């Protein structure tokens, strides 16, 4: 896995994404969150096909912090299961890589 990663997650509302995102940045589990905006999701849940408006977001963090971020995300938001996946970053500028590392972690 690469040294820095992005964590893609979805939220039930902009307010929730903003609140959880701010908490995770303040707790240094992520260097940044980008709120990508509303998306329309179609998914299977408890045996039924559902549709909902959600807010997509991308967190920037280190590979080591990603599991902690996902666990904390599960504690802070309204979904029953954390809707979060890790995307490795294969290439990034050195300045960006160092910024993520310096701002994600204790």
TrEMBL record:
Alphabetized InterPro entries for the sequence: Ion_tolerance_CutA, N-reg_PII-like_a/b, N-reg_PII/ATP_PRibTrfase_C
Domain of life: Bacteria
Family: Belongs to the CutA family.
UniProt protein name: Divalent-cation tolerance protein CutA
Organism: Sphingosinicella rhizophila
């Amino acid at each position: 896995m690469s040294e820095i990663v992005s964590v893609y997650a979805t939220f039930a509302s902009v307010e929730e994404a903003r609140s959880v995102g701010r908490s995770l940045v303040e707790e240094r589990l992520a260097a940044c969150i980008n709120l990508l905006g509303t998306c329309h999701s179609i998914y299977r849940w408890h045996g039924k096909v559902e549709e909902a408006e959600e807010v997509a977001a991308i967190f920037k963090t280190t590979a080591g912090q990603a599991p902690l971020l996902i666990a904390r995300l599960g504690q802070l938001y309204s979904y029953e299961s954390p809707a979060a996946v890790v995307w490795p970053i294969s290439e990034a500028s050195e300045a960006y890589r160092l910024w993520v590392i310096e701002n994600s972690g204790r």
